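How it folds
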Amino acid sequence: MNSSNDPADRRRELMVLYDTGMPDVFGYLASRCGSAAVAEALTSETFLAAVEAVRRDTVPDLTVAWLIGVARHKLVDHWRRKGRERDVDAPGADAVDEWDVHLDQLVARSTLAELGSHHRSALTLRYLDGLPVREVAACLGRTEGATEVLLVRAKAAFRARYEKGVAS
């Protein structure tokens, strides 16, 4: 997509992206949540977040890959809400002290957030979402070979930053 700085152009870009990317976003969510109604709600949340990001001018490139990343965050939020609801419904359930696991997850999330969007998108699609390289390449608009190289570089960048975070 064209990345003009004119707010009106960015809004038009988002409208075009809505038309072209909506099936991808809905498909991504539907395949992971198992409910068309939940997928529809999360798709709506995704595009509302996209509108807000465009309004705040915090989106470097309006792409389907970026939208899938937003959708992934909305799905994670959904599962967290569900987990909290389950915890409230089952008071007195044994809580395992997973402090080390929690800290490790925080460092990993922070490390992922520090990476460039191309590395973050590739790693998220491949390892968090479990997509095969072929599908990651399709989502990112790259060849499989270029995607494999990107993943190698992204893993190296992640590893280097992660080790710094753990050592801190």
